[in-house]
Amino acid sequence: MKWIILLLGILSNASASILIKVAMSNASAPIQLSQPLSIFGNISLMAGISLYGIALILYASALNYLPLNIAHPTLTSGSIALVVIASVIFFGETLLAKDIIGILLITFGVVALTIK
Fold first, then answer.
1. Residues 79, 24, 58, 9: what is their CA dihedral angle, to the nearest 10 degrees?
2. Residues 77 and 7 sit within 8 Å (Cβ to Cβ)
3. Which residues touch 42 (CB under 8 Å, ≥6 apart)?
4. Environment class of residue 100 by beta-carbon count within 10 Å: exposed (0-12), middle (13-18) or buried (19+)?
5. Three-state DSSP class for residue 32
6. Which one-letter DSSP state was computed for residue 40?
7. Helix (H) or strand (E) holding 30
8. Which of 9, 12, 80, 91 has its CA 20 to 30 A from that of 72?
9. How many CA atoms lie within 13 A of 19 on its CB side?
10. Cβ contacts of residue 113 below 8 Å, gap of 6+?
């Protein structure tokens, strides 16, 4: 159960980042600093903010079952990997060999942390 909670936190965190990128790319509902209430007209931004809140709640819940030195690196690295993959799929961003190597190194590092 603890890993499911953390996995849902990873998915929420990565989805929030993706939605905020979508929100900032939305020309029909721009965010304007001179009009702070304009954020409420941007559904993607509001969904992203909400998902960050959900991710925080799931992360806090996971900390009831997992040590901090396991939960935090797992959440962070999982989110990084998903965002990199999503940025290629949804935004056409470039994925280089060094990016793949970096994700693999991060993943191996987290696996090393979780092995008892």
1. -20
2. no
3. 23, 26, 29, 30, 31
4. exposed
5. strand
6. G
7. none
8. 91
9. 17
10. 69, 70, 73, 74
CB 103 within 8 A of CB 80: yes
Cα–chain center distance at 63: 17
pLDDT at position 34? 80
pLDDT single digits (tens) 38-62: 788 888 899 999 999 999 999 999 9
Tokens 């997992």 sit on residue: 66
**Cβ atoms < 10 Å from Cβ of 71:** 22
Q: Tell whether the torsion through CA atoms of 58, 63, 68 and 70 is positive or negative.
A: negative
Average pLDDT along the chain: 90
For residues 8 and 57, the answer to whether their CB atoms sit within 8 Å is no
Helices (H), the chain: 2-24, 43-62, 68-91, 97-114
Say yes or no to pLDDT of 29 above 70: no
For 2-12, write each residue's pLDDT tens digit.
899 999 999 99
